[in-house]
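Minutes, project huddle
Topic: does the predicted pose make sense with magnesium ion bound?
PN asked that the exact inputs be recorded in the minutes so nobody has to dig through chat later. Recorded below.
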Amino acid sequence: MTSSYRINYQLRAHKRDPLIEFIKGLLLTPFVLHAKPRKPVLTPSDARGGSQQGPEAGNGDEDNNDYQEEEKPMVDANLQRYLEIMKSVEAMIEEHRRKVRKGVPEHSRLHRIVPSVASFFTPLPLEAAFLNANAKHSIAARRFVPPSFNDIRRILNTAQVMAIAPTLKLITFDGDMTLYDDGTCFTETSSLIPLLITLIRAGLNVAIVTAAGYPGDASKYEERLGGLLRSFRNHKLSEKQLERFYVLGGECNYLFRCGWKKGGATEEGVVGLTYIVPEMYQPADMLAWKSEDIQELLDVAEENLRRCVSNMNLKTTVLRKLRAVGIVPLEGAKIAREQLDECVLSTQQRLLEYQQMSGPSKVAIPFCVFNGGSDVFVDIGNKLIGVQVLQSYLGTAPDATVHVGDQFLSTGNDFATRSSCCTLWIVSPEETEGVLKELTPLLTFPSETE
Ligand SMILES: [Mg+2]
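Predicted holo structure (tokens), as shared on screen:
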């Protein structure tokens, strides 16, 4: 039983986040031991009928242990137990940060318990964040539903927002499912627009780091972000403010800066994007990627994806781009998550084997294979490189950068950013709105108007 459980767990590792599972396990213990059902209240009819079932009907002393008597003391005691746990995890994270600074992360208690734990670029005030989440989701008052994966994911987000707000300089966003629904455009009615404008007015650099790759083609990105760019114009953002907004497409391959452009029907001009040539911001090792090596890697990926499509009879089309290859479902078809994950994991494995067999003489081109929710793509480069090039271009440190995205499982393309910046894991544009509503009141705004 134990070994089959373990095998099952390992095979499902791409669907789990080890740190969240660890915290969830800790919170489950007090829930199991103490969050007992409410004591039944005797109704007049129970009393008339002389019920023999109720805990106060003769054998009360034994049965009383099965219930929590009073509502408020139970909630207060639960809350204290949960807070104690969150405070302990907070302390473990601090210890881990100290060991990382000393160059021995593997010596931390947290690393021993959760070996895959990522870096923490700021402390995380988990106790305060739990109180905040408890006020919204009544975690301590729940007797039948324990603290869930999503409760803990949101608590980590709140803690990260609280910690990074005073030092934040760069905030990057994934596109699909973070700012807008999958494959759709940014519309003028999006409730995220005033929040993004607030971030820019607070002096932050704001960037969209997306898998969507249209080589050097500003008009394609302008089309997808049309509602946002028109809103920038309607709010009359200054050139200096617009210059703080970037779009980095193809994970890390195509950078654009926002600004006023001449054109359109009006005299005023329009807000648009300008392509920045790679030599302006890409490091030497990235500029050295050879195009024949890129195409060879994409050929291997495409061959494997085609094999997956054929083996699983998927109704898809293969899409090849300059620096990407992917499979997208045919109109009306849907690929199950398990099938998407199968394509991702087998292609990851195939490409790693290919690079290993190529030997040390060939520079290994970084790539990312990811489940985009309804499709699978292999992109040259990844969002880790994307965030890093923005950090070096804008002179921003990891503890002053936060990436907001929805794909933080190991088969997702936001996952890689964890090595280089703080992260907020959301699951929908509504949750992005939620974290920005927590963040914006904590920001300080430059006194001079630009
Ligand atoms: Mg996404």
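Observations noted during the meeting:
- The longest strand covers residues 254-261.
- The CA atoms of residues 315 and 330 lie 6 Å apart.
No decisions taken; revisit at the next huddle.
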